[in-house]
Amino acid sequence: MTKTSRGPALLILFATLMATAATGISIVAFPWLALKYDDSAEDASIVAAAMTLPLVIATLVAGTAVDIFGRRRISLVSDSLSGVAVATVPLIGWLLGVNDINIPVLAVLAFFAAAFDPAGLTSRQSMLPEAAARAGWSLDRINAIFEAILNLGFMVGPGIGGLMIAAVGGINTMWITAGLFGSSFLAIAALRLEGAGKPHHAARPEGLVSGVTEGLRFVWNLRVLRTLGLIDLAVTALYLPMESVLFPKYFADRNQPAQLGWALMALATGGVVGALSYAALAKYVRRRRALLTATLTFGAATVGIAFLPPLPVILALSAVTGLVYGPIQPIYAYTIQTRAPHHLRGRAVGVMAGLTYAAGPLGLLVAGPLADNAGLKVTFFALAVPIIAIGLIATRLPSLHELDRAPDFVDDPGP
Hints:
By secondary structure, the protein is mainly alpha-helical. The two termini are 15 Å apart. Helix 1 packs parallel to helix 7 and helix 2 packs antiparallel against helix 10. The C terminus is likely disordered. It is 79% helix and 0% strand.
């Protein structure tokens, strides 16, 4: 019998915090550098889209790679390549000069900086059931803590990014990003956990394409996962431009990088509190009700932000947005983990993440030109109002009732 130990879970959570904080800095720093180069929301959208574009394919491939090569190995490779990609920004500035870091260069570097992140996230999330079993935790508990750590990373990352941009400039800020990826690498290098190594050949996909296809087929044929994926796809496509383009544009026009960091920190702080609250209340709250309440309140809060009220109100609405949406990803993760067999888990996680990111580039590329031509307020409303409509439609979807039904397959190792 394996001895109970929280060590593996803590290492995974620490690595997730470091890697997510690094990504959070990138989300602020890359668009900021683009805006400072040409002061164009469209250019910032191009750079932000370059960070989102690889996520769709990368998450699908990452899920299959995790199931082929092993979760720990893929996490280490991901952190290494992500760190190299972001460190290239200051290296180019040092070797060739700051003026050589133009919009195309930023877009290419942003593309590669984002391309490797999904593999790390997918691999770490795929190890959670075994880590929960080792720690004696339930899936709801570890998923909620994992989501809180993600939000904490996105809270700390943009905050550090905004402050460091103000102190040392956007280019030098990328050194901090590379260091955080290095810390994540070291944590996973120290991890020893059953199920984290290379799977047995009989359980591995036959190939990359067949593995991705099998994962897509599994998620699409399971009605509840298909519905959750499509909802998350639509909501993310609408909200991502607000966080990655409209907020940076709004605060860049006012030369307020620190305030941009505060707004993103407020969102993430709410997410931390919401996720941790769900960890305590999961036994008493129906998952479908939590999902619908979160989506509708999320839409109402984003409509409030669309009015571009004073900063304290923006911060409060951002915190509310994170608070109500905090339980959503733990619910998604639990649904995957209790429906997907062990050998398909990486692919199921990758497919769900890929669906989330699929419409992101389109939303980003539409938001930038719309903001330049129609203004920030109109663009905020054009993105915020449909989120409420999605929430109303979701109340009529019968497949969401399956969230509160016992699954045929249960992979919950915790008590």
